Amino acid sequence: MAWRWREPGQTFAQQAIYRLCRAAALAAFTVLYRLRVEGTDRVPTKGGALIIANHASHLDPPVIGVAVKGRSLMYLARSGLFRFAPFAALIRALGAIPLRENEGDLGAMKRAIAEINRGRLVLIFPEGTRSPDGGLSEFKRGAWLLISRAKCDVVPVHIDGAYEAWPRSRTTPRLISAKPVRVRFGPVICFEKQLAQLDPEAGLTLLRTRVADAAHN
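Below the sequence we write its predicted structure tokens.
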């Protein structure tokens, strides 16, 4: 897949930084964690959509960013990551949107919806935080609120091996992991056909099931 010149609203500098960081991360993940990616053809080549994934490691956002070929992602990221100014500037340039935890951050939600509506791919982790044991936790209602308001298609993703490389219990990642990191994209979930008629509980159950199924599809 050829790279798009720029995503909607993205500056040339932001695209250049994204590509440079992606290339460096791809090299590191390939060498250190033997990164494997499957199902990239399921990611829309144009237009807006929401990408949802399981969350067990700090490595998850860059791993998915590397796995998506030809397009730049935007990310909902917890506001605590923006406290150190130089790092905040970097992740903002890479498309991070700060999200206040344990609050109804409508501002972040509106920003994410606006970005999807103008044609961007936005990544969220519906569990809300990293899993303590690598397992798939329950999805938060905020994810359903975002999807129901954006009325967008959803791409489920499952990440395996990132927990072993950098579990929540460690302050730094293992430089070598016995288990390779594997990313699998599941079939796109069409909002109009599969989600529009569901209530929040049924919708979140379906989304969680599809993320789990992506590990095998």
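The chain has a mean pLDDT of 93.
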